[in-house]
Amino acid sequence: MRSFNLQHLAAITDGQLIGNPDLTVLGVCTDTRSVTPGDLFCAIIGENTDPHDLVHEAFDRGAVAVLASRPIDGPCVVVSSDSDLDPVIVALGQLARVQRETMSDATVIGITGSSGKTSTKDVIGQVVSHFAPTQAPAGSPNNELGLPLTILQAPALTKYLVLEMGMRGLGHISYLCDIARPTIGVVTNVGKAHIGEVGSLDAIREAKAELVMHLPASGTAVLNYDDPYVRTMRELTPAQVVTFGFTSEADVFAHDLVIESDGTSSFTVVHRDNQARVSLPLIGKHSVSNALAAAAVGLSIGMPLDQIGQHLHTVTAVSKWRMEVHQVARDITLINDAYNANPDSMRAALLALQSMGHSRRTWAVLGAMRELGADSDSEHIALGQSTRDFGCDVVVAVGPDAKHIYEGARDAGVEKAVWLPDIASASDYIVSEVAPHDIILFKASRSIGLEKLVQLVEDRLGEDA
């Protein structure tokens, strides 16, 4: 982060300065436990905590000042806002916008989509990092707080800054684009995630299209040709368009795709008269789509296709709880894909499970999908029904909101389908029923906390080994 003195910080945020205007901040921090000397502590009020009451801890750890929404005892800049957002979050966005303006040599690559954003961001970051200094943060810092913090924490020599952009409604991605000013925009897909908040797939398309609409004419929109909602976004952007997909009509496409028994894949990536064979060490066909998006980005910044292919050989799953494969006792495989879920990503994960199953018994341990609105019950029933199509031998629906998954699986004829009310009972059932060589997928929306079940099952199976 570039340094700011408090006087400059107050001017950027239209805040009230209290204390020495010449104090210089060297970084930003939102958690008193993570403060380092020279930081500006940002007091963002949470549901159950008010960090304004904890500023003494920040000062004890070396913070030089506080960005606050009310005066505190110590040097600070007090900000206010007409937005629904916390005023400190708005101020951080203003600060990040100024920081972005100073990064004249940096190219921002923005990524959005209903699913696959984080995994695509991770693959793009790893591929592009071989070309020039690149910053692509692990995890999903994709909202009005996470994106500004990522910009502010980017190293000074960053050439490519890869930013995930999430949304909960119309205008959210535009807000992020106003801060980040992306030059390259990637749209992975349009699906039913957030449909309960936005209302329809057409509205979700409109929200996601805000990214490509904000690109400059000199920029590049990287669009998933296989998704008709995304493909038509080419009409909405002034930027040049590069498409990717599984059809030869896309600019960058996969040919001769083979899904291996361990869920990884090999394929030939083709662009015009050039092609490169890739062995991708990530799980699932959807990971191939993410790799094609990364190839399209690499080509758009001038990377040779053969070099891109070489780097795709070595990518890894950077962000946690996304198709993480754990081998445990008795040759049992656990797949932790518990970070988030929507109807499209659920089916992508089930397809990956099916490709890894072969002669092994497959389990789908599934929790509820959030933010589906009026379609929630029918989508959960349909998900349960689809587990039979994907050949799942055992379906375990976990939690009170997952009962419709069980009902759908049962009605579709899945021989072994159960509903269990909580993680403890699900753990007991899995540990008692699992057999050697079984493979178990865990997936649900983030708020369900299904990663706790994965850890509990892994620990208990380890004890029994």
Characterization of this structure:
This protein is an alpha/beta fold and about 475 residues long. It folds into three domains: about 5-90, Udp-n-acetylmuramoylalanyl-d-glutamate--2,6- Diaminopimelate Ligase, Chain: A, domain 1 (3-Layer(aba) Sandwich); about 105-310, Mur-like, catalytic domain (UDP-N-acetylmuramoyl-L-alanine:D-glutamate ligase); about 325-465, Mur ligase, C-terminal domain (Protein-Tyrosine Phosphatase, Chain A, Alpha-Beta Complex). Helix content is about 35%, strand content about 20%. It has helices spanning about 5-15, 55-60, 85-100, 115-130, 145-150, 170-180, 195-200, 200-215, 230, 285-300, 305-310, 345-355, 375-390, 405-410, 425-435, 450-465; strands spanning about 5, 15-20, 25, 25-30, 40, 65-70, 75-80, 105-110, 135, 160-165, 185, 220-225, 240-245, 250-260, 265-270, 275-280, 325-330, 330-335, 360-365, 395-400, 415-420, 440-445. The strands form four sheets. The chain has a nine-stranded mixed β-sheet with strand order 9-10-8-11-12-13-14-15-16, with helices on both faces. The termini are far apart.
